[in-house]
Specification:
about 50% helix, four-stranded mixed beta sheet, 27 helices, about 775 residues, single chain, alpha+beta
Amino acid sequence: MRSDSDFGRWGVVAFAAVACLLAVAFYREFAFDTSRMLAGTDMLNEGYQLRNFGVEEIRSGRGFPLWNPYVYGGQPYLAILPGPVFYPTSLLYFFAPLFRAIGWTFVLHMALGGVFAWYAARSLGLGRWSASVSGLSFMFTGFVVSTVYGGHDGRMFAMALIPLAFAFLERGLRSGRVRWFLLLGLAVALQVFTPHIQLMYFSSLALSLYAAGRITQRWRAEGSWRTALKLVGLWALAFAVASLVGAAQLIPTYQIIGVAVRGSAGEAGYAFASSWALPPQEITSLFLPDLIGSLPGAYWGSNPFKLHTEYLGAVPLTLAGLAVVAEGRRDRRVWLLAGIAILSLLFALGAATPVHRVAYALVPFIKQFRAPSMMLGPTSLMVALLAGIGWQRVLHARERDGDLPWLWLWLGAAPFLLLGLTAALAPDGLMRWVRTTWYPMGWDRSVSVDLESALRVNGWLLVIGMGLTLGLARGVARGRLRAEVLLGLLALLVADLWRVDARYMSTMPIEDYSRSDPMIEHLQASLQPGQRVFPLPERGGYGQNELMIHRLPAVTGSQKFRLEWYERLVGGLSYRNLGAPAVWSLLDLEYITTRQEMNTGLLRAEAKGGRGTAYRVVGDASHAWFPVRVEATGDTAAALRQVLSQENWRELAVVEADLAPPAGSGTASVESTLPNELTLRVDAERAGLLVVSEVYYPAWRAFVDGRETEILRTNVALRGVVVPKGRHELRFVYSPSEFRTGFLLSGVALAGVLLCLVGTGIRARLGGRGQGR
């Protein structure tokens, strides 16, 4: 094996080339078949439609869409985190078919995760071969790669950037130079734009713990308060930079939090914040991925379902343990990395430990997030870095006297080896013991036979992986084996993680996903501007976001956020109020699609498709109308009761204001509709309130013949505008100040940071030349 010095500056290039080849090989089913797309569940149900909408709007020349009229009757587009809108790799969406571009971003970030982890290990002072252990361990770690099953590209991007942010932080803490903290700020800002803000926040907490520990270590070593305070200030500068550069995404999202809900009851309190934690029983998934199982049909744990794995690999875990046992006394950073890994893991367990409860009580914004298990992203990185340190310690022992605490290492590995042997020799017995010991009596989830055979393989690989790793490390450390055995160890590391990761990667022909049918074509031809569809939520029917691909507006959807007042009007996630025909009219609902037979005089079957029938709503709904009378209230609940009690939807409009405007009369029709703009032609016989079947949001502005007028929230969730007598043009324009402010702040901050980085680079080069003279 060549020494680290033989690589020179080509080390990162060589590792990057290997990482790219491995990533393409892993995704080969997608990479080499241009007709297939990655079949991530949430990407198919939600993510692809949102990206497709944004790309089509920009390609059409209409510019960036800020409002999405195709789900939930209409809602903000950017603020609900529709995808990596501002993330650099999203440019690929405009140079390749969208389904191919999305897939290649997964391939790219799998490789980048490995390269960034390699760079992070090098930042800790590891040699290039030891850094390769860290890079491959993180690149193939289960919690990162298995995100492809859900199609969670933003989550994968954010996790791939954790080691890059760590590398900049470590170099900054060691050198005290501003440029590294500026780069740290840019790395965190990129996480914001992924836009998995939760994972960014959790990883930033882990990095902050590391910074606090390293600053404390340096203060104790040097005894200088000035140095410690300077590093604290630079750390704060980095996150100020991240906040300013990421403002284009952060400000609109922060703005919507106060008026949006995610769950049926608004999702609040500790029960929400601790939901989707890692169940304590599933800590075993870190080293035995099939004991509790994963994926539909195999998972039998306590979460409602599971679509990922936390598997860290036998080789990385063994080398990480070696680092803690053998190197902890020599390098305090080892204890710091191990401590953060353990704290992150305890946080991921949610309500099962005090760690998450303390964070919930003391740390800002933790109340806004659920899924504490996301903290396994930082855990995975810490284990990967410790694995690289472990191999570095083996090489150092080889150069000295082979001195490593082998007894303690084998004793530490013994419980895992015994558990692995149990899984290999008696998987059914182990599962029965787990079922009767870890779960309540009568646990209703059964264990599949296939899971037993997979667990047997897990057990043997755990025993072989840990035993072989320790045996080879001992041979190398004592000079009995050449250092080249690391290549075989790396092959075992990759093969072990690959076999688990591969379960989560699947593809499908794009034609099976986006094809139209007679029902879709009928709806596209029949719907007038403003009219909407209600796809009934049912197995085998049209998905809640699916009609969006075909540019068909729906009263339902599948998104991260929903506006609170719209949620009240439709009756929550169950859409219980959509059973009332009066609400159909208020929302200008023209069609209902379902696989069921609907024998009622309110509906008329018109077109049949592959997954249901389109029923036209019988009635005289209008997209804008003058109500017979108008009442005012300051109570949304009271307004909802009044609206739902009306038999004639035109009879009454309830505005949430101090005074009720007059009731007018006349007609109105939609003249043109765009995502960010709506124009109506109004003929008012008598001045008064015009109700428009468009969802209310404060950032909308209304203009009557070019003169701005107030928009009143009407009938719980709609817009009302007072129109004077006569013929008028009523124009609604979506103009969110938070978007303009955020975009301006991001642009100015990014330009400033880049100028600072260029300036510091020039000064460093000039200083080097001066010293050379």
